[in-house]
Amino acid sequence: MKVPAADLQAQFAAIEGEIREAIDRVLESQHFILGPEVAALEQALCERLGCRHALGVSSGTDALLLALMALEIGPGDEVITTPYTFFATAGVVHRLGARPVFVDIDPASFNLDPGGVEAALTERTRALLPVHLFGRCAELAPLLALAEGHGVPLVEDAAQSIGAVYRGRAAGTLGRIGCFSFFPAKNLGAYGDAGMVVTDDDGLAERMRVLRTHGAQPKYHHHVVGGNFRMDALQGAVLRAKLGHLDRWTEARRAHARGYQARFEAAGLVGPDRPIRALPSLDALEDQVFNQYVIRTRDRDALREHLAGAGVASAVYYPIPLHRQACFKELGIAPGSLPHAERAARETLALPIHPELSAAQMDHVVDQVRAFFADREEGSGGHR
């Protein structure tokens, strides 16, 4: 049995008519950049998320870059963020000449640990940049309090978390700016790169609109230097078609998370003295969107190899924490300085959780995990 990490072909087959209709609208209009399709998507996301402004952009990376440019982050500035995330989170900080300041993660949630942020604040801190990793919101209340107390903005990297909720509010809408990615494999995925920035700040929204189109206002008149961060109309149309299915897909992911939990517990695989050290928390299940379903095990690499041999796709998010990347060597962060991020990089494995996953496929995944650990226990004479 094959179990893919994502099944975009099955997703497309279920909504093909809507997708083709959306693409045909764009072809008939011959309006390919921004325009009414993107504007309609922006309005729909404002209504869904409960924010004043949403701006379609060219990728999740460009959403982050645009947000920091709008906040005038630049050389000599510091931005506090997590070392356990996709590279773009810190890459955009460095790209603007600023310095990413890494604070370790909470080992249970994988998100930025608020307890370490206050000590990292300096007179050069210009923003806090938490990430809502794997579809679960960071603990924002203390981070927002620190941001307000020190007079710095908080930018939410919600690239993996559209639809997630923190204390009744949509991810991306609690800080000054929220940033989303619509990479094809995301919960709401485009047919190429695309992203979104959201804000309730009228001034920031207008500044980002100008920066999105090379800083031109009006056309060919440049008072600031921006970039080409515009969303294509084709992506706006595809995302509009998919948006109506997002709630159903999210509920399927939550059901799969419950299904995995029940199967792993029934197999006796989970616990401090068991081979799987932790599963994603199902506390406040309705607030999470499970962009990934991540288990922790010391045998991660061998397990992944075994699963691949059995037709089960898996992924490692992320094998090298950002403070250990070669390009950030100049920051001088010694190995072991951020132990929870480094341990997560060694132990975490993401299993398939896409909405199209069947019960039989889930059974196969868990059966193969069980077989792997049974073989290892037998080979060690019953000793772990």
Short description:
The chain has 384 residues and is an alpha/beta fold.
Description:
- The chain folds into 2 domains: 8-243, Aspartate Aminotransferase, domain 2; 246-379, Alpha-Beta Complex (Aspartate Aminotransferase, domain 1), CATH 3.90.1150.
- The chain has helices spanning 8-29, 35-49, 60-70, 88-95, 114-120, 140-150, 202-212, 233-243, 246-266, 300-309, 339-347, 359-379; strands at residues 53-57, 78-81, 99-102, 125-129, 155-157, 165-166, 169-170, 177-181, 195-199, 293-296, 348-351.
- It contains 12 helices and 11 strands.
- 45% of the residues are buried.
- With 384 residues, it is an alpha/beta fold.
- Strand 6 and strand 7 form a beta hairpin.
- A 4-stranded mixed β-sheet has the order 1-9-8-5. It has a 3-stranded parallel β-sheet with strand order 3-2-4, covered by helices on one side.
- The model has no long low-confidence stretch (mean pLDDT 96).
- Helix 1 (8-29) crosses helix 8 (233-243), helix 3 (60-70) packs across helix 4 (88-95) and helix 3 crosses helix 7.
- It is 41% helix and 11% strand.
- The radius of gyration is 21 Å and the shape is globular.
Question: Helical region count?
Answer: 12
Would you tell me the overall average pLDDT? 96
At the fourth level of CATH, the homologous superfamily of the largest domain is Type I PLP-dependent aspartate aminotransferase-like (Major domain)
Task: Output the strand order for the largest sheet.
Answer: 1-9-8-5
